Amino acid sequence: MSKLPILKPVQDQVLDIQHDTDPAKDHGPSRRIPHLGHTLLFFSTALTCVLLCLAAVLLTAHIHTDVEALQRPGLSLLGQALGYILTLLAAAWIFPRLWSKSFATGLDWNALAARRRWFWVVPSAVLVSGLAQLADHFVTAPKDDSIARIMSTAHGAWFLTLFGVILAPLTEEIAFRGFLLPALATAYDWLALDRTPAGLRQWELTSGHTTPALIFSAIFSSVPFALMHAGQLSHAWGALGILYAVSLVLSLVRIRTHSLACSVLFHSAYNLTIFTAIFIQTGGYRHLERLFT
């Protein structure tokens, strides 16, 4: 949230809200990025990349039906991983050209904050992960059969671990805390903006978000994040509620640290805690049958 003082209006003239609602045309281009248009472009790019990579992997393996794909979930995971990588490469090429600044700067990556605060980000992630796993024992949380099949072999377990600790946290945090969260906050602030010359000048001079906007965006950006994992949890509401709460924590980390790198680190450490528990339980992925007994 900007610390610049709100300018006092020179006059009480109120703009015609019905006609003056386009900030790009009426008040100059906004410096607040990413906005909802950027977010829609990112998610459209991600969906296209993932679908293309999934199709390429499955067709290369001569899989043409959903039944065959379900029987070989590792290939679907490979297609998803390749789709994530392609998404990141495409986004890193597209958005710097739209923003006239680097991809990391536009998303407020702020690696310095992660280096300075890792000593509390990582332990906090481990604690939250432990609490979430404990809470899972008190709710109905059936797991995805495809994940169970991937975890039935050591190679599959290691591949899922690498995907879950490195690629998934990076891509998902860029999507939900890098794009969607600030875009929703910007939309909220724009709709709540005082349509007076002073209010509009304040909008032009600042690029931060108000506290209500950040609360709103944290609440509503966490909904699609949880629903994206619904298939893995067989749409069990209790388990989805736990994941929703975790998303709120990730949003809080992103907002409080002003660093997307911190939320990626938190997410990665959270997932690593889960896989570490499985690693210990299965004797280094050598006795994976223990997961299903």
Question: Can you tell me about this structure?
Answer:
With 293 residues, the protein is mainly α. It has a domain of 188 residues.
What are the defining features of this structure?
12 helices, mainly alpha, globular, single chain, 70% helix, 293 residues
Q: Give the topology string: H per helix, E per strand.
A: HHHHHHHHHHHH
For the secondary structure, the number of strands is 0
Major sheet: none
- Uncertain segments are 1-29
The share of residues in helices is over 70%
Q: What is the average per-residue confidence, as pLDDT, rounded to a whole number?
A: 88
- What is the subunit organization of this protein? single chain
Structure annotation, total helices: 12
Distance between the termini: 51 Å
Q: Note the beta-strand portion.
A: under 5%
Shape: globular
Supply the helix-strand structural class: mainly alpha
| Rg measurement, Å | 22 Å
Write the layout of secondary structure elements.
Layout: H1 23-26, H2 36-60, H3 66-71, H4 73-99, H5 103-106, H6 111-136, H7 145-150, H8 154-191, H9 197-205, H10 211-228, H11 237-257, H12 260-281
Helix pairs in contact: 2-4, 2-8, 4-8, 6-11, 6-12, 8-10, 8-12, 10-11, 11-12
